[in-house]
Fold this sequence. Notes:
The protein is of the alpha+beta class. About 35% of the residues lie in helices and about 30% in strands. It is built from three helices and five strands; from the N terminus they run E-E-E-E-H-E-H-H.
Amino acid sequence: MVTIRLSRTGKRKQPYYRIVVQDGTKDPWSPAIEVIGNLNPRGERKDTVVNKERAEYWLSVGAQPSATVRNLFIDLGLVKGKKVNKITITADRAKKIAEEKAKASA
């Protein structure tokens, strides 16, 4: 499956991300099929540059964006819909939270 996701570059404590199209099974730092944009999260204004034509092409071919990239595409107007939650809770953590809620209500 082809995935559109972020690949971190930049120096330590100075992140800079590339928006890349990659095989979903590969490491994010492995060579990408195509770099379609970049994201600079530092500073007052978050700078995002995306080649919209290529992004629309890859989405039309069936590439699946990661949660973060999907939210970026929604902000840029490339994708319609609601933003998705990027945080996933493991089963162990969910069980622990349920136990804490049970203790608090008892």
